[in-house]
């Protein structure tokens, strides 16, 4: 068993344990409808986690993903619905903006944590400007997509699998994905071979922007309306999801499949805690405790591995 | 893949030619007037002491540094606008293996080939990469036992180096014509190193060229057809290997000017430290740590320093003071004033009831400004207002102002002007006579010649202990370079 296998097994294991716990507490969740309900809201979280993963992959961290997803949700619920052309243009510009932020961070040697923290206020402000009070509605096609009822397997599960498969193929199997991960692993090695780190970083940020937009759209499709603060918690959830899924903050070690599983685990943890009838005041703390537990196990395993 | 039928052109054809190439970094001439032609089929052994300009030379060839002046021409270049820098060298078939590894530890062995392989086909590239890497590894290191799917981070250091070397020799879009190997055998064991040397010979026989940098003179003699000696940024010798013996080669590497006046040996006090690796010092002694850069001297000093100081709280009377060589990394607090920077070590020593004694701080500041001649009007100016040499003086004063009986110095004179150096030497002498012990790692020979006793490091261990008249540049070079055969 190599380190890579462990990295892969641990998220699956934690998801399975939680799932068993949920089924034990609430056997009725073990159905088409129950599973859909449990994992529905995991789709936007998973997309946001993938977005965060793109940034962590190049050794940066994004503190603006929550407000960015909120902003995208507001755009989707208002502009895209009212004037589609303008709406989609704004979303496309947002992606370009994200790529530009990545380029600026690299060229000027700025700490990503500061720049993205600053950007989070920009996105939040834009979202409030666009939608001062909760409201709006999703474009009909999006609503249809997100409430689809495919036979046998619930939509939420299929969507999670598709997101995981597509990003895995791109990040882990394509030759461009290797370069992106290489930036996180050893930037200088790429530079020496004549690759432009600016472009690669901009590409990683642009991809993060793309997945942030998708997360915002998926969220509106599910909730049918938006709010400027709708996804604030996504920032921390996405970071936690990447780490829970076997990623590391530095060194370009990320796993897209793990990140999606991490997002599912975090969503499930919230349901698990409500099934335990834990007051919502304690839920965030309890979610944190689950996270610390999993990370502690991972640390123990990798220490032993390192000693052996 | 285009033109991969032969490794390169005919024997004897120039692969790269440097004509009077200069490279300076500000006022420092790292390379002056280098003229060198590397022919196909040649293996050039490049030797020289620290800072002789070896890395500058190879970095000019591989395109990472743009020469300040002079010509650089590669074989097979069509006239017109050639691509710049690293791209140009890569297109001409120049590959490099650096001392610090340039692999991505988070990628697999095969994926690491993707990074230098710029025109990797989009589809089916994984199979191609695996096949290429396997073939290259099999060719250079038969029976290597490395699988292409392993993560590089999971490989031991030696195998990582093997992968990097194999990738440098691998076949891809442009073929390897000139491979630059900088200390390639530093973490390989003798048998594997021998495989590499055999492969280098084979590669050269088939028309490739190699520049081989090593501190193992046995290896250089074993593989090089021509030896180029560098000294102070110049190429001083360039002759076929047959024209050298080990003794003449070591002589050739030495400085022209030498024979500093040795101070008469003094009586030292009791031994104040002895480390398991043999490093020892007595009271009032200036002990030098010599050898080529990166052979474990800095690590020994850091380990010693941390073993004598507590992680939890600073002692009122420290046992050891540290003078950093890398100022920006572990010396200067850039936002603080000169005075604050100077008083850092003595904060506890001269504080009363947890409060900084400002009067005493100022007194120390004034004393040391006088003694070590820090050139400033006002000690409350920011530290960055000083020149590099004066910043370094502040760091010296910081350590010397404490009552620590042992001062550890990690190559502290890097980038310091001669005048400052002389002042600091004098200071060190005076302090040593008062009974302070100095551990001094330096990459500069003149500084080592100032020491009372010298330990030469090679591959992380002490390879020689020199005292008194035995402290000569020749002896140091002899101990820094491996004199035995490559495969001992």
Please describe what this structure looks like.
The complex is a heterodimer of chains A (308) and B (488). By secondary structure, chain A is an all-alpha fold. Chain A has a single domain, classed as Orthogonal Bundle (ABC transporter involved in vitamin B12 uptake, BtuC). Helix content of chain A is 77%, strand content 0%. Chain A is built from 14 helices and no strands. Chain A has helices at 3-25, 32-39, 42-57, 65-82, 84-108, 112-130, 140-146, 155-173, 175-185, 187-192, 197-223, 234-244, 256-275, 280-307. In chain A, helix 3 crosses helix 12 (234-244), helix 4 crosses helix 12 and helix 5 runs antiparallel to helix 11 (197-223). With 488 residues, chain B is α/β, with parallel strands linked by helices. Chain B has two domains: 14-253, P-loop containing nucleotide triphosphate hydrolases (Rossmann fold, 3-Layer(aba) Sandwich); 271-471, P-loop containing nucleotide triphosphate hydrolases (Rossmann fold), CATH 3.40.50. Helix content of chain B is 33%, strand content 22%. Chain B has helices spanning 54-61, 85-91, 109-114, 125-140, 157-169, 190-205, 217-223, 246-253, 297-308, 327-330, 338-342, 358-372, 388-400, 418-433, 445-449, 473-480; strands spanning 14-25, 28-39, 43-48, 69-74, 94-97, 178-182, 209-213, 226-231, 234-240, 271-274, 280-282, 286-290, 320-323, 351-352, 355-356, 406-410, 437-441, 453-458, 461-467. In chain B, the strands form five sheets. Chain B has a six-stranded mixed beta sheet with strand order 5-6-7-3-8-9, sandwiched between helices. A six-stranded mixed beta sheet of chain B has the order 13-16-17-12-18-19, with helices on both faces. Chain B has a three-stranded antiparallel beta sheet with strand order 2-1-4, covered by helices on one side. Chain B starts with 13 loop residues before the first strand and ends in an 8-residue tail after the last helix. Classes of the chains: A mainly alpha (308), B alpha/beta (488). The A-B interface holds A 2-4, 173-175, 178-179, 181-182, 184-186, 188-190, 192-195, 251-253 and B 64, 85-87, 90, 96, 102-107, 111, 114-116, 118, 120, 122, 125-126, 150-151, 153-154.
């Amino acid at each position: 068993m190599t380190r890579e296998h462990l990295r892969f097994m641990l998220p699956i294991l934690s998801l399975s344990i939680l799932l068993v716990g949920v089924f034990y507490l609430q056997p009725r969740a073990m159905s088409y409808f129950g599973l859909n309900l449990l994992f529905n809201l995991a789709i936007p979280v998973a997309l946001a986690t993938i977005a965060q993963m793109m940034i962590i992959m190049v050794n940066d961290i994004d503190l603006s993903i929550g407000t960015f997803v909120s902003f995208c949700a507001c755009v989707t619920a208002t502009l895209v619905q009212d004037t589609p052309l303008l709406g989609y243009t704004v979303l496309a510009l947002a992606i370009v903006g994200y790529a530009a932020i990545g380029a600026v961070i690299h060229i000027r040697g700025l700490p990503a944590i500061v720049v993205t923290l600053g950007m989070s206020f920009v996105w939040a402000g834009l979202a409030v400007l666009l939608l001062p009070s909760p409201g709006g509605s999703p474009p009909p096609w999006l609503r249809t997509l997100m409430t689809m009822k495919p036979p046998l397997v619930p939509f939420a599960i299929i969507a999670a699998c598709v997101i995981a498969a597509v990003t895995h193929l791109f990040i882990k199997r394509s030759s461009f994905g290797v370069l992106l991960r290489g930036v996180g692993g050893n930037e200088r090695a790429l530079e020496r071979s004549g690759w432009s780190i600016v472009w690669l970083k901009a590409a990683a940020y642009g991809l993060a922007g793309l997945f942030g937009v998708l997360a915002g759209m998926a969220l509106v499709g599910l909730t049918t309306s938006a709010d400027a603060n709708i996804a604030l918690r996504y920032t921390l959830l996405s970071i936690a999801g990447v780490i829970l899924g076997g990623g590391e903050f530095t060194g370009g070690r990320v796993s897209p499949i793990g990140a999606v599983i991490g997002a599912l685990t975090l969503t499930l943890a919230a349901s698990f805690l409500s099934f335990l009838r834990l007051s919502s005041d304690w839920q965030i703390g309890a979610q944190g405790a689950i996270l610390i537990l999993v990370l502690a196990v991972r640390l123990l395993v990798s220490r032993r591995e390192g000693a052996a | 893949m285009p033109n991969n039928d032969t490794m390169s052109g005919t024997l004897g054809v120039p692969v790269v030619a440097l004509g009077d190439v200069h490279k300076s970094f500000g006022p420092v001439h790292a390379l002056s007037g280098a003229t060198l032609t590397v022919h196909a089929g040649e293996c050039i052994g490049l030797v020289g002491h620290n800072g002789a300009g070896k890395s500058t030379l190879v970095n000019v060839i591989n395109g990472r540094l743009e020469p300040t002046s002079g010509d650089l021409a590669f074989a097979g270049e069509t006239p017109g606008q050639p691509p710049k820098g690293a791209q140009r060298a890569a297109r001409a078939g120049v590959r490099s293996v650096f001392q610090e590894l340039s692999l991505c530890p988070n990628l697999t062995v095969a994926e690491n080939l993707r990074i230098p392989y710029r025109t990797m086909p989009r589809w089916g590239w994984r199979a191609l990469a695996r096949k290429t890497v396997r073939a290259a590894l099999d060719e250079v290191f038969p029976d290597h036992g490395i699988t292409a799917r392993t993560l590089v981070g999971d490989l031991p250091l030696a195998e990582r180096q093997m992968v990097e070397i194999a990738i440098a020799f691998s076949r891809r879009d442009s073929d390897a014509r000139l491979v630059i190997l900088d200390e390639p055998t530093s973490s390989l064991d003798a048998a594997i190193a021998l495989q590499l040397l055999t492969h280098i010979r084979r590669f050269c026989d088939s028309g490739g060229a190699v520049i081989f940098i090593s501190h193992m003179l046995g290896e250089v003699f074993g593989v090089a057809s021509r030896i180029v000696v560098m000294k102070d940024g110049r190429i001083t010798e360039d002759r076929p290997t047959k024209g050298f013996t080990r003794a003449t080669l070591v002589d050739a590497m030495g400085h022209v000017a030498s024979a500093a006046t040795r101070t008469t040996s003094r009586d030292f006090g009791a031994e104040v430290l002895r480390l398991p690796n043999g490093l020892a010092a007595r009271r009032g002694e200036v002990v030098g740590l010599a050898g080529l850069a990166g052979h474990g001297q800095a690590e020994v000093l850091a380990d010693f320093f941390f073993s004598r100081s507590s992680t939890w709280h600073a002692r009122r009377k420290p046992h050891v003071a540290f003078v950093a060589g890398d100022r920006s990394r572990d010396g200067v607090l850039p936002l603080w004033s000169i005075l604050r920077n100077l008083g850092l070590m003595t904060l506890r020593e001269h504080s009363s009831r947890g409060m900084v004694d400002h009067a005493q701080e100022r007194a120390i500041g004034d004393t040391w400004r006088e003694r070590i001649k820090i050139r400033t009007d006002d000690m409350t100016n920011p530290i960055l207002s000083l020149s590099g040499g004066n910043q370094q003086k502040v760091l010296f004063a910081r350590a010397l102002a404490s009552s620590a009986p042992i001062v550890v110095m990690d190559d502290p004179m890097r980038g310091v002007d001669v005048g400052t150096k002389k002042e600091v030497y004098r200071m060190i002498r005076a302090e040593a006579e008062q009974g302070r012990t100095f551990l001094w790692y330096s990459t500069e020979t003149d500084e080592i010649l100032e020491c009372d006793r010298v330990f030469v490091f090679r591959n992380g261990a002490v390879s020689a202990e020199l005292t008194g008249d035995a402290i000569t540049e020749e002896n140091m070079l002899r101990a820094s370079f491996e004199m035995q055969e490559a495969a001992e």
